[in-house]
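ok so dumb question maybe but i'm new to this and my supervisor (M.) told me to 'just get the structure for Dynein heavy chain, putative' and walked off. so i did the thing. is this what she meant?? sequence i used:
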Amino acid sequence: NVIKLASSLGYADRLHMLSLGQGQGPKAEALIDRARDNGDWVMLQNCHLAASWMTSLERIQAELNPARISKSYRLWLTSMPSKAFPVPVLQAGIKITNEPPKGLRANLTRSFLAISEELFEGNSKPRAFKKLLFALAFFHAVILERRKFGPIGWNIPYEWMDSDFQVSTEQLDMYLNDQPGVPLRTLSYLVAEVNYGGRVTDDKDVRLITAILASFFRNETVEESNYRFSAADMYYAPDATGLSDVRELYLCVTSG
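this is what came out, is it supposed to look like this??
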């Protein structure tokens, strides 16, 4: 996790992230120009969505003068497999492959490994936050797993990422801290229609993702003890005490 690495090395405020897409090329180039002079980090996400700009990225890489670059400068690139990604850039860098987890257990375990103890224990409404965080993790795992069933799962296979879960977690923490009560309606809109739903283009899939989240983000999840998300006893929001207990629970109990 680049964000965690940057934080651990004191670069949290010097990591500049940009999701590539139409019209983002000039912004990316400006970020790189500034960062290589002052030693900041740049992370360009979704390079596969900016195929037309990849030739510019190759040119930028070829024109770099090591003598003029700060030693602390780092350029991070994320991409799905793409024929448009320039081979010289691949050859010049360190490659890391990130396989998506398979199965509910693997997805849940991965989601909670990314949660810090400070975040897990720091909310002003601890019960509501933890319960809805469990619900969000299950929702994230379910919509990812549905992709394996082709058009039965989703009409279009969407590329949801860990960043969608992270953003939703941060919003959950912020709104519970700042708002009176538990703003389920607001949180449901942000998660289903903005964070995850922003990638959804099929109208039937829009209805489906909203319906799936509604089965997790509900008053019973917060109010009831060990509320079951399905008839299977293993899928529930536990009355957890600590983060390590939750990780062990999902690792040992939840079926993949």
